[in-house]
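Supplementary material to the annual report.
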Amino acid sequence: MSMTAAPPTATSVSPVPPTSRPSRRTADPRRTPRWVIYVPLALYLLFTLVPFYWILLFAFRETGSTSLFPWPLTLEHFSTVWNGAGFSVFFENSVIIAVLTVFFSTAIALFGGYALARFSFRGRGAFMLLMLCTQFIPGAMMLIPLFDIFRATFLINSLWSIVVADTVFHLPLSLMLMAGFIRNIPIELEEAAWIDGCGRMRGFLATVLPLLRPGIVAISSFAFISSWNNFLFALMFLNSQDKFTVPVGLSYMLGEYSVDFGALAAGGVVAVVPVVLVFAYVQRYLVQGLSAGAVKG
Amino acid sequence: MAVLNAPAPARGARRRRRERWTPYLLIAPAGLLVAVFLLYPIGSVVYYSLYDYNVTKPWSNGFAGLDNYVTMFSDSQFWQSLVFTAQWVVVEVGLQLVFGLALALIINESFIGRAISRALAFAPWAVSGVLTTTIWLLIYSPTTGIGRYLADAGIGQYGTSPLANAGSAFWAAVVAELWRGIPFFAILILADLQSISRDLYESAEVDGAGRLRRFWSITLPHLRTAIIISTLLRAVWEFNNVDLLYTLTGGGPGGATTTLPLYVARLAIDAKEFGYGSALTVAAFVILAVFSGTYLWLVRMGRDQNS
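Predicted assembly:
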């Protein structure tokens, strides 16, 4: 599917003589009037971007300033949250959790997705139904039983409890998306490899895996964002400050009696930078990925 | 659904026999994780709901029969949270759908600046609930908010935060959640819009169908499945969404913005009332199941009548 439906250029539609080609200037009744696009779009972008600007303004502006521009620029709030409020530790914890979650959920989804895409076996339909049903299970509802499991296995206040919980919750979506991506790769490629004497494993590594790379990137990015943003599990299962994640650290700053707004905003910026970077990369696949996968039929 | 397409048949009887167990080995890790950490917990919630169970008061724990459920039916906070949950889900999903559809239709046009607009417009999708709270708290606060700057400029008055009283707290939370929720619908609907063949629109144009007519007769019917699935997913998601309300309003003022899952989360996290919390969890499961079932049933009814 082409993501950017570029308007046809003059060279690509040459059968029509250039003179009859509707010019950009003249009003073509079939073309959407530009103001119908730009006016609502501008209003919507204002609604989207002003909040982002607001947090950047407070993060970079000097304490006590009331200017609407963060000038003179200061990094004082960042050093306050990073060193004083412990965000360097929270950041590290969040990175560890996110990386492990991405690794486990994507690897397990790769196995399961391959089975769903390439084999027909008894129980396949039931397994897929189970994966779909898990999408309806609320995280908040699982707090109590998971707390119990983690307490019994001595994982309370361990980063592993979050890795396990995040992986389990994100796995079904990753798995169904992965099955969709693998199904889109022609099986003939693998069959050719088998004929050449490869086994399942080598055939997969040689033919499917290289073509699967965009799918894997998209799926791991979704897992990263969902793990990075997870709040409730970390709030419930981690209880000492050296284990906190960024969202938990941020929530404690929100709850403080007298909030240092500059530091709070800087903490927010620290929290948003990794997801914005991943998002900027993955947003091109976002629309494609979801339509290729399981979310819609 | 695409997921249900039949896989290519395995080639060769020998390969088939040797590979009989391969798919089961491949789905085993996922199956095990889901069974241990999702299915078993659901069972244990039902079990706990019949017990007095508070980690901080081990002396009073024990079998309680249906006491927790009896408590629930006379708990006014429970009924209040149900009403608020319904309001929250209907308002959020409805507004997100309308604005998301509009945004998707705009971005589906070809215009200058389309790629960058799409990236910027979808960005809040990646932002967490806690961060959304951080951002909107800065905006709503009377000392740091936009209201103060407007008042400085002579528009409106210096006032209190909209989060301070029950009526405006609801709408303040709705707007904050819309900010990060609209892109979800826009993304899903845009994906579906791009799969509509251009020929359809062109032939409709030749037949003299206007813009509105084309939207009504081609676009909307095509989007039907995507809209049904995304509203259902989103309704469940908004029902379960706790992060934003937990941090933005804390369920207040006076419990006015407490959804049922938020009530459960507060019981679990703050009060450690696991027994009563489990009973409420079971109630929430039943509500979700009934809601999803009814929704899909209504949709099927509608489809049967159309065809």
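The beta strands of chain B are 51-52, 62-63.
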